Amino acid sequence: MLAKQGWRLMQGKNSLLYGCFKAKYLPRWSFLEVVETPNSSFVWRSIMVSREILERGSCWRVGDGLAIRVNRDKWIPNHPTNMVIHPPQEDEWEWSVVELINWTTRTWDRQLVETKFHSEDVEAILRIPLSRRHSIDKLFWLHNREGKYSEKSGYHLAKQLWREVDSQGECLTGGGINPNRRGYTGSVSTGEACLCFSGGIQSIPEPPSCTECNGEEFEMGTAAWTPVQTQLRCSYFPGNSSVRIQGEVMASFLARGPPIADSEEAKLLACRKALEFAVDTGFTYIVVEGNNTVVMNAILSSRTAYSWLGHLYDDVKCMAAGISNLTVSYVSRTANSVAHSLAHFAKKY
User: Fold this and answer.
1) In whole angstroms, how far apart are CA 194 and each of 25, 59, 170?
2) Parallel/antiparallel/unpaired status of strands 285-290 and 107-108
3) E strands within the chain?
4) Mind listing the pLDDT tens digit for each residue in 249-258?
5) CATH code at 193-346
6) How do the residues of the chain divide into helix, strand and coil, expressed in percent and rounded to 5?
7) Lowest-pLDDT range, 6-15, 130-139, 222-231?
8) Could you tell me which residues come within 8 angstroms of residue 42 by beta carbon, excluding any fewer than 6 positions away?
9) Nearest of 87, 67, 85 to residue 76 by alpha carbon
């Protein structure tokens, strides 16, 4: 429970709890940076005991990059230690992640990143998806899908830390962290996504067993056509692809997406790209269909997304709010044979 209060201090800066402790203990520093003082209250010292668990299990989600220090903070998900493994030789003073972003295109400044960092870190940094909007940096919990701290995940992390300390014969900073005391607990293969909508949008992935893309990048292709009197017949053969569309094609596009970490990210990026395309083209009636229940339910949910992809969900929801007639639903993969064939066809271009 104490770790949960610490998590609230890290997340809810408008809460009454944060307001009570800020003036005395957090005047200039965050909860993860503040130094415990001898005259601290018993409650504050108890919460501080859980800080090591929260620091170990949390990571920054890059928004505007202003609050994230390049060489000191954990901000690279799906990367060992979640930090820069090979720090640049030139240690910039107060170097923040905001300096690595090209705000004109809202993408990473590839040239600067490749110049400053080791190739292993470069690949991991360029994989981090960025928001299309101005969003602030937020901490998320690494040990569950929701990105929010839970007592269960904190308990298991505390047990892991305790085993590590026990094997080394040392004591944790702050001492007294026992995972059996509740009061003190605090790469997936990539694939290919193709977007298409017939009177709407469909977002589907390439099966994880795909051997053609080698797990590096995925293609995004979208075709839009009139929902009335439209029939599609697509066929895919190794070395020979053909797509025959009977009906009036209204718009289409093909784009190469960035490297991805998992299926959820692929489908979410595909959905965002498809909505951007639909809005730019002027469609007012859009149907979004996907075979990932996690992504579809998160888009439909009114709850805030705290995971490492939360800012991408916010992008999709923001665009969806501006569309007068939008339907989002889950469909089985077997219903996406046409889009699946289009995905194979798009890979050749």
Assistant:
1) 51, 30, 51
2) unpaired
3) 58-61, 101-102, 107-108, 138-141, 193-198, 201-205, 219-225, 231-237, 240-246, 249-256, 285-290, 325-330
4) 677 777 777 7
5) 3.30.420.10
6) 40, 20, 45
7) 222-231
8) none
9) 85
Cβ neighbours around 261 below 10 Å, total? 19
pLDDT at residue 10, rounded to an integer: 83
Neighbouring C-beta atoms of residue 341, cutoff 10 Å: 20
Domain assignments of the chain as residue spans, ordered by start: 2-184, 193-346
173 vs 227, higher pLDDT: 173
Is the CB of residue 84 less than 8 Å from the CB of residue 71?
A: yes
CA 225 vs. chain centroid, Å, equals 31
How is residue 61 written in tokens? 């989600």
**Do 185 and 6 form a contact (C-beta atoms < 8 A)?**
no
**CB-based contacts of 265, cutoff 8 Å, min separation 6:** 129, 309, 312
Give the per-residue pLDDT at 300.
Answer: 92
How far, in Å, CA of 265 to CA of 152, rounded?
Answer: 25
Q: Please tell me which residue, 267 or 188, carries the higher pLDDT value.
A: 267
Fill in the DSSP letter of residue 52.
H
Give Rg (Cα) of the chain. Answer: 23
Half-sphere exposure for 333 (CA within 13 Å, toward CB): 10
